[in-house]
Amino acid sequence: MERKKTNHTKSQWQEIRQAWLFLAPAIIVVGIFFVLAVLFAFYLSFNDVNLFTNTFSFKGIENYLRIFTDQKARIALRNTATFALVVVPLQTIFALIIAYILSSKGIKGKKLFRMVYFLPTLTSSSALTIIFMFIFNIYGPVNDLFMNLGFYSEPINFLQEPAYALKVIMVMNIWSTVPYYMTIYLASLVDLPHSLYEAAEIDGATTVDKLRYITIPYLRPITTYVLLTGIIGTFQMFDQAYIFSNGSGGPNNSTLTLSLMIYQYAFGQMNTMGYAAALAIVLAIIIFITSLLAEKLNKERG
Fold first, then answer.
1. What is the pLDDT of residues 212-227, one digit of tens each?
2. Which one of 50, 92, 214, 259 is separated from 222 by 20 to 30 angstroms, measured CA to CA?
3. Number of domains in the chain
């Protein structure tokens, strides 16, 4: 079959040129700070790099092979995966439940609650981390509360115990991200036809039935977005772990994440920028594959 030629009028060509003109700044910025940066990182991953002397030594795939034998990399991957597997489902479930409750009729003070509950989202992650470090300090209010309730007699050093350190960051992340995703769910629930709920009530459906068979299927596209952004955010978690451990990933590497490890090798040691770039490429691939799997799984359940 012959390909038909597209004949544009003079005004249409002017509109196309104007469109490209308006898009040009964004394309240039993306090209310089994203595309070129990714390509340069990919190039660095095959070299040993000393940024101070600006010297490059080609190593082939040695940096990538080093990842599989690096015990520290395995710990960072395990911590990052654990963090994502715990935080993403819980923040999604809590956000959906709270949004569903607030969308119900007859609840007073919903607007005030939404406004107050959304405030943590407006606060910087660094400030929230410092606040939670105070709350979970060995002399902080959490220890005082639990000891007064009789859960234990001696205070727990949550910040310095490997068994608790990452869990504290999980709690903080869930608490600070649920309001944002709750707002997204609420905005979608506004468009949900109430006639579906009314028909379900006539058929004798309970609140749980309406949530399971009407609300959740209707919100599936939004849930996909929440899962994808949650996965990307948790796999890239850096600032909380950095502030919590003062950049070390401690105690005993319990808060070491892949992003923090990339920072350590890129700026904390000499001649390891290439290895850091290889770790960054691998992290990007992991995020991409995990996001695809999450999206596919969510669609299959629909």
1. 888 888 888 888 889 9
2. 259
3. 2
